[in-house]
């Protein structure tokens, strides 16, 4: 599956991060809360005295110690949680994406017959390049197209060049709700951590946003060839996708166990477009190939 087991610093050096502000913001606050909890511990008696001095009628000595201890404990726990959140977001942004890309590629059994593949929401190209490396490994003449709504073509092609797969990769700017490709065009369609971002302008929990996400799933199915394979890794809304795929009569729908990404639940869904139209809901299976993901 391409270059597996790579050093995470190398992956970050190649792909970078789209959002440094969030983990840095969380890290700064984690440090502030941690320092505050240490100060609570060091100056515990002074804090207790301050409570008694400010509200002597309200704080008895015992109650003042309880409030000071409780406040210090909550502050320390908040610091730990913020450290974890910052670490999880930092890890999810690149390293986990790389790991999940390897697993998504593994969900396609035979890459040697793949001539056309599409990565919807390719971003900086982690999954895109992973697919390209697999095509190169198989000696395939296939190509993979990366589509993104932002003009990231130059930076994405640059990472493909660093990975040595530029001849397998092309990029296009476009809207995932109206994919600029004909029906039944791609052998494989993949998407990682993207679909849940569609429709956010309507609010993530609104019916309008859900409808926009379903349009993306419908477009993915539309551009897949009969017998083609789709693999989607996404956050939170996976049950909606499964329901939509069932409505579209997809076959062999498989859902991974939960993987914590960006502090929420995520899953990988793989499915196949039937060669002929089928009647009745598709079966949903738990795919053990995706288990034991940290």
What do you see in this structure?
It comes from Tagetes erecta. This is Methyltransferase type 11 domain-containing protein. One of its GO terms (molecular function) is S-adenosylmethionine-dependent methyltransferase activity. Keywords: Membrane, Transmembrane, Transmembrane helix. InterPro entries: Methyltransf_11, SAM-dependent_MTases_sf. With 294 residues, the protein is α/β, with parallel strands linked by helices. It is built from eight helices and nine strands. Strands 1, 2, 3, 4, 5, 6, 7, 8 and 9 form a nine-stranded mixed β-sheet that branches. Helix 2 runs antiparallel to helix 4, helix 3 packs across helix 4 and helix 4 runs parallel beside helix 5. The longest helix has 46 residues. The C terminus is likely disordered.
First and last CA, distance: 19 Å
Number of helices: 8
Based on helices, strands and strand pairing, what is the structural class? alpha/beta
Helix-residue proportion: 40-55%
**How would you sum up the global shape?**
elongated
Give average pLDDT, whole number: 88
Q: Biggest sheet, in brief?
A: 9 strands, mixed
Number of strands: 9
Strand content: 15-25%
The low-pLDDT segments are 277-285, 287-294
Calculate Rg over CA atoms: 24 Å
One letter per element, helices H and strands E, the order comes to HHHHEHEHEEHEHEEEE
Transmembrane segments: 24-44, 51-68, 74-94
Domain Methyltransferase type: 118-230
Pfam family, one: Methyltransf_11
Organism: Tagetes erecta
């Amino acid at each position: 599956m391409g270059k597996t087991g790579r050093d995470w610093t190398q992956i970050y050096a190649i792909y970078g991060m789209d959002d440094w502000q969030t983990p840095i913001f969380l890290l700064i606050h984690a440090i502030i809360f941690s320092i505050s909890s240490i100060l609570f511990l060091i100056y515990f008696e002074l804090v207790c005295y301050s409570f008694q001095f400010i509200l002597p009628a309200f704080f008895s000595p015992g109650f003042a110690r309880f409030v000071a201890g409780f406040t210090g404990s909550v502050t320390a726990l908040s610091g730990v949680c913020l450290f974890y959140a910052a670490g999880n977001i930092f890890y999810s942004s690149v390293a986990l994406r790389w790991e999940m890309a390897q697993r998504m590629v593994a969900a396609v059994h035979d890459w040697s017959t793949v001539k056309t593949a599409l990565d919807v929401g390719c971003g900086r190209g982690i999954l895109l390049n992973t697919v390209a490396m697999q095509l190169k490994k198989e000696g395939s003449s296939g190509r993979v197209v990366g589509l993104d709504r932002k003009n990231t073509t130059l930076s994405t092609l640059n990472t493909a060049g660093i990975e040595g797969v530029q001849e397998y990769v092309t990029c296009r700017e476009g809207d995932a709700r109206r994919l600029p490709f004909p029906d039944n065009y791609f052998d494989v369609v993949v998407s990682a951590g993207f679909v849940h971002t569609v429709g956010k302008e309507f609010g993530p929990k609104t019916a309008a946003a859900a409808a926009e996400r379903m349009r993306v799933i419908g477009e993915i199915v539309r551009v897949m060839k009969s017998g083609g394979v789709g693999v989607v890794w996404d956050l939170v809304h996976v049950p909606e996708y499964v329901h939509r795929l069932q409505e579209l009569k997809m076959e062999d729908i498989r859902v991974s166990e939960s993987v914590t990404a960006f502090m929420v639940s995520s899953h990988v869904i793989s499915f196949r477009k039937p060669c002929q139209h089928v009647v009745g809901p598709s079966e949903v299976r738990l795919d053990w190939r995706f288990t034991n993901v940290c």
